[in-house]
Amino acid sequence: MLELINHLNELPAIPYKRYFTIGEVSDLCAVKPHVLRYWEQEFTQLRPIKRRGNRRYYQRHDVLLIRQIRHLLYEEGFTIGGAKQRLANEKASVGEKVPNTLQAIRTLRAELEEVLGILMR
Fold first, then answer.
1. CATH of the domain spanning 2-119, picked from 1.10.238.10, 1.10.1660.10, 3.40.50.410, 3.30.70.380
2. Which pTM does this prediction carry?
3. Number of helices (H) and strands (E), helices first, in the chain?
4. Residues with Cβ < 8 Å from 82, sequence gap 6 or more?
5. pLDDT, tens digit, 9 for 90 and up, residues 70-93
């Protein structure tokens, strides 16, 4: 988990927006748009909102998931199948005992990024 957090620090901070276009997500996650579209087919957890003209709009949790998938595939060397299994196991291991721990960490990190942004102005 610490490796994942360190890796996420290399990528740009996620701005506070409700929705992101595929181009923005591509830049935020260092993944080309066609790869994002492919991952949507492979990872059932990744479901951006589609609006007019089938335009994709990703939310913050989608961007975090994409970064996690990217880390598993590119940094840890998992196959698509292995990454799917790892994500499924992670979800199962979090279970009912600590359902919001990962989300709490993500929220805390986002809040810290916001404070850092304010301090750097």
1. 1.10.1660.10
2. 0.69
3. 6, 2
4. 72
5. 999 999 999 999 999 998 888 766
